[in-house]
Amino acid sequence: AEIVAATPDGETLIFSNSGDQEVGFLDIRDPENPVNLGAIDVSDWGEPTAVAVTPNGRYALATVLDLTEAISDQQPGILVFIDLQTQTIAGTVELGGIGPDNLSVTPDGSKAIIAIEDEESEDNLPGQRPGSIDFVTLDYENPSNSTVNNIALDLSDVDGVNYPTDPQPEYVSVSPDGRVVAVSLQENNAIAVLDVAQETVLNIFSTGVSRHEMADLTEDGDIRLTEPFVGRREADSISITPDGQYIITANEGDTDRDRFGDNIWSGGRGWSIFDLEGNVIYDSESELEQQAILHGQYPDDRSENRGIEVEGATSAQFGDQTMAFVASERGSFLAAYNINDPSNPELISFLPTGLAPEGVLALPDRNLLITSNEDDGTIDFFRADSRDLTGYTPQEPLVNSKSLNLPFGALSGLTALSGNPNRLYAVPDNAFSPSRIFTLDLQGTEAVVIQATPITRNGQPMAYDLEGIAENPQGGFWLVSEGDGEDSPNLLLSVNNNGVVSQTIPLPNAAANSITRYGFEGVTTNETGDKVYVAIQREFVGETAARIAEYDTQTKTWNYYFYPLDTDNVDGWVGLSDIARDIDGSFVVLERDNQGGANGAENVQVKRIYRFTLEDVQPGEMVSKTLVTEVASNHNQIDKTLVTDLVEDYDWYAEKVEGLAVTEDGYWVVSDNDGGYQATRLLFVERPAMPPIRGLW
User: Fold this and answer.
1) pTM greater than 0.90
2) Is 658 among the domain residues?
3) Which of 29, 104, 326, 452 is in the most buried spot, having the most CB atoms within 10 Å?
4) Mind listing the pLDDT tens digit for each residue in 274-304?
């Protein structure tokens, strides 16, 4: 879902689904249990880019972009009218330009106003066909007879624009009184304000640059806001405030930094407030990126691009509070601000969303705020409340840091130490460099990162792809680093409590040469610590079961057990994510598919915790499918029992459930947020009743 709109009663949601070339419908009378009402196929015309609803609730309108690849053959966009009573197409209108991007309907319902971007080629601006704005006078009795007035934009006298001959209209916002409409001209770093009744341009102004005293402009796996920053705002979504006096801008950016030769960055990495004359009333500077860091949602590998990329924005009146809502595409979060004083906004909430929020919709009459999330196809519902309701609990706490000097994210391994139920340890994968061990304190409804212990060897900081951590009963920790299937090997690492590596243990050559890039993913030990167990994520080449590798610290040898992976997800692969020893000596593992996230939440199937024991199972290396089958017939393949299904029991739709820690009362699981691209989810699963198991050691 990309862009969302709602019927006037706020009970039906309409959304664009460009991937499936559909316009979808949801019954949201109970937002906690939305009901799918089907979809309208618009593939005959192309891909829907935006949706809106007429104020009388009669029609949903969708702009549709022609998908013809050859620029010379592209056809004008189409405005599709959908009868909401019958959920059928009531008519279509050919628009006045190619490539419609966004639309809005005037409060009186008389007109639809459409941004015609006509982006012929992102890499070859300016284009030969200048973008424009369509005013469509709506004919409710015969929608196909609606009339289109195409308005050209003259940027030749506007200072500070990038492409004077190619306006590049992006997003449309109509004032609540219907008198003016603001249109962002994103690639031109400008906003046009037009008179709705006269359908004429009132003024066009450059949105200028955002200046930060501190930013992270280096992609090195180490998040530090230490560099001065200047960036063209280049707003995507904009919103005229409820009083009609100001414009909220989401300063995403959309040009190439090297294109203009002035060393100014693309995008403002935040949001701004302008008056209708183009004066800057407020700019967030680095404040929003600071919040992203404290919540573990700053993607460092976007530092040399546009940072958190604030793409979505809206504003609305909730009671006596004028609110602005801005959404980060790259950090996957929504920030809610009180803007009663537009020169001094107050941050009210920082809310995680699905992956890459694009559309933001406020429904004040229902006390709801909605985001549509492009990359995973989800829709989030937030309820406004005057009470301090965060939604976080001791069973699902907010993971955060209290210091910009303790950035975190990409938690790929998790462990708990015996005797301290309020302390967890986690490791990040190679999204963070140098490698480190995070210490988390459980403080009621929060899990606070209080320390990051660097991993060193011979006095030098080390960069591993850490995927698992376990307490070493003999002191310190065991860590595993995943290989890349080519140059970097899979490694078992012994470190002390200060993070100093004392042992680096690879697989034997025969196994190392058969492993794929889906290698070491979790680690644990037996009770005494003389045997270490490593979960290998996926099957070796030519095999049909995953392996649990066993390292004997006394003989310094490896053995293997075979683990049968679930096969009920046909849309992707299934593998292991972590392993831990339970309090009875059995083992628990995280098993997951690669669905969710960018692969789409609708295909999520396998996010499960299983238990197994090695009692009566003999180690033995198996290198072919036949031997795996033979092992199973000889009871050498592991039998597993389900502990919990995270999808069914806890609505887990994030792709990477990566860390598993055992406590006396149950299990903690944590998500890997891919280095800041979404929220870190930490969840406690209560221990179910366990069957008695004879002692293993």
Assistant:
1) yes
2) yes
3) 326
4) 999 999 999 999 999 999 999 999 999 999 9
